[in-house]
Write a structure and sequence with these properties.
The chain has helices at residues 16-32, 54-57, 76-88, 90-96, and strands at 3-12, 37-42, 64-73, 107-111. By secondary structure, it is an alpha+beta fold.
């Protein structure tokens, strides 16, 4: 069964193209490490909640947009191996130094699909 890494980040609204470019440059590396699909979604209709919401989760500022993304892998084992490579690959390390968002406010996790229609 497949495995999914999900991410939510806050990106300055004026950095949309820089973020898209950053993600486009990272995508081939994730594929090289075993990912089968990578999807990046720029927030368009992200409502404010009363108790919690996407913006609160990443402490988004007024001038930031919430980005929701996920990376699909064929299995958790492939994802775990990919994460090991990501942490040690010098290309990924260099990309980490130029991220167009505050990585400290990123939320992420691994998810096992239970329905895929």
């Amino acid at each position: 069964m497949s495995y999914v890494d999900g991410f939510v980040v806050a990106v300055p609204a004026g950095e949309k193209e820089a973020y898209r470019k950053h993600a486009a440059e990272a995508a081939p590396l994730f594929k090289e490490f075993g990912a089968t699909r990578m999807v990046e979604c720029w927030g368009d209709d992200v409502p404010d909640g009363k108790l919690t919401d996407f913006r609160m989760a990443v402490k988004a500022k007024d001038d930031e947009v919430v980005v929701f993304s996920w990376i699909e892998y064929p299995s958790k084992e492939v994802r775990d191996a990919a994460n090991q490579k990501i942490m040690t690959d010098p290309r990924m390390r260099a990309m980490g130094e130029t991220m167009p968002f505050d990585g400290k406010r990123m939320i992420f996790g691994g998810f096992m699909p239970i329905l895929d229609v």
